[in-house]
């Protein structure tokens, strides 16, 4: 089976098609400016059938002049079409293509492209809360700890969208998109979740080490729950040699901070912690 992908026609191709239809496609003699044909082409969004149907609607609703010609005017086009409805299927391919374009523009730090895709979605009637939820995901997945303020900002914008809705919240969403686009990027948090997922799937029955179990009853304490627990607050360096990983996962690493934004500090801190353990842990 062959799959044929039908591409949209360009505005120029549609104008040429419409001009030919005006000359040979109708019994009446038509006069239409190039500007009018361009407006029809823009409205039709690359769809030849839509363009020809629009032209036919103009012909059906137009008035013939004394010389027998039918002049197609801008006013007539406005009457026939009303305000242009943007091509945007919130449940179809456009929905996913446009949110993908927004996400990838922000990831690429292209602030102007991100602003464009955001406002194009809003103009098409997309739910602002859906966009805000995607921005929440982006704040952690593509920025993470490189800029802690990113997530806080988007949470506030999400709540603002709930409070005031469209059209007012378009400014707040644009503010969030600008911030996320220009923020330092890191996917270290996202990668940590993907790395740990495999271990979690394979070790669901791995027992919790006794020293960090919750020994709340006498029987639990007799079984060794909580025995050997070391409270880091009482330690000189606020670190202990106590094992907190399951036995079979000791030494596994999930979080690998980058050299971006605030994550530089987290990387330095992590290196200090690892150096301390190398010095104090039993071999």
CATH architecture of the largest domain: Orthogonal Bundle
Order of helices and strands: HEHHEHHHHHHHHH
Describe the strand arrangement of the main beta sheet, using strand numbers.
1-2
Strand content: under 5%
How does the overall form come out from the CA principal axes? elongated
CATH-derived topology of the largest domain: post-AAA+ oligomerization domain-like
Largest pleated sheet: 2 strands, parallel
User: What is the CATH class name of the largest domain?
Assistant: Mainly Alpha
Rounded to the nearest angstrom, the distance between the terminal CA atoms is 63 Å
Rg, alpha carbons: 31 Å
Beta strands, count: 2
* Helix/sheet category: mainly alpha
What is the count of helical runs? Answer: 12
Helix content: 55-70%
Averaging pLDDT over every residue, what do you get? 87
Low-confidence stretches: none
Domain count, please report it. Answer: 3
């Amino acid at each position: 089976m062959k799959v044929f992908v039908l591409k949209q026609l360009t505005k120029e191709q549609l104008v040429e098609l419409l001009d030919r239809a005006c000359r040979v496609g109708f019994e009446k003699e038509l006069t239409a400016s190039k500007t009018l044909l361009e407006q029809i082409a823009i409205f039709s969004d690359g769809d030849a059938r839509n363009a020809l149907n629009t032209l036919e609607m103009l012909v059906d609703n137009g008035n013939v002049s004394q010389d027998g010609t039918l002049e197609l005017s801008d006013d007539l086009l406005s009457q026939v079409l009303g305000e242009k409805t943007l091509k945007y299927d919130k449940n179809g391919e456009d929905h996913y293509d446009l949110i993908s374009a927004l996400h990838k523009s922000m990831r690429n730090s292209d602030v102007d492209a991100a602003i464009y895709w955001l406002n194009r979605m809003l103009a098409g009637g997309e739910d602002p809360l859906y966009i805000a939820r995607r921005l929440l995901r982006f704040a952690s997945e593509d920025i993470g700890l490189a800029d802690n303020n990113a997530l806080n900002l988007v949470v506030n914008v999400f709540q603002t969208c709930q409070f005031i809705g469209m059209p007012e919240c378009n400014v707040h969403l644009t503010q969030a998109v600008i911030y996320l686009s220009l923020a330092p990027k890191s996917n270290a948090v996202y990668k940590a979740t993907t790395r740990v997922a495999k271990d979690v799937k394979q070790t669901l029955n791995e027992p919790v080490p006794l020293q960090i179990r919750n020994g709340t009853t006498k029987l639990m304490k007799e079984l060794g729950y909580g025995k050997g627990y070391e409270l880091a607050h009482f330690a000189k360096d606020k670190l202990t040699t106590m094992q907190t990983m399951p036995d079979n996962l000791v030494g596994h690493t999930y979080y690998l901070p980058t050299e971006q934004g605030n994550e530089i500090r987290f990387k330095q801190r992590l290196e200090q912690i690892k150096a301390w353990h190398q010095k104090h842990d039993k071999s």
